[in-house]
Each structure stands twice: as structure tokens, then as C-alpha cells.
Amino acid sequence: MTVKQIIRKLLDRLPDNATIEDIQNELYVLQKIQAGQEDLRAGRVRPHDKVMEDLARWLK
To answer: Are 7 and 27 in contact (CB under 8 A)?
Structure first.
């Protein structure tokens, strides 16, 4: 699916009274999800247990 097709699909599922801000927010979330998926494919991930260990240390 092309980026243009993804955006059309996104626009089609938004209500007719969606604002530009609503669209920008949806695009931002979509962009972050895609970036996370790319990180996952590239192996740029950290196991959940390691993240929890870091958080425990930082929150002390």
C-alpha cells in the first residue's frame, strides 16, 4: 500500500467534521507507529524486562 493510499484510507475513516488538527494528530500517530515498526524490523528494540529495570532505577 502506498503512502497516498494509506492517507486516503485514514481520511475515509475520519468523520466528515474532522478538523485539520484531528488529521494532523492521526498522521502523527501513524508516523510514530510506522517508525516503531521499522525499528522492530531493523532490530532496534529493547526487551521489555530491560526497559522495566531501567524504569525501576530511574524512578527511585
So the answer is: yes
Q: What total of structural domains would you count in the chain? A: 1
Those residues with Cβ within 8 angstroms of residue 20's Cβ, 6 or more apart along the chain or in another chain: none
Give the global pTM. 0.74
Q: Could you give the CA distance from residue 3 to residue 21 in angstroms, rounded to a whole number?
A: 19
Range of the domain at 41: 3-58
- Grid cell digits, residue 21: 488538527
The beta-strand segments (E) located in the chain are: none
For 24-39, write each residue's pLDDT tens digit.
999 999 999 999 999 9
Q: Place 58 in a pLDDT band, splitting at 50, 70 and 90.
A: very high
- Is it the case that residue 21 has pLDDT exceeding 90? yes
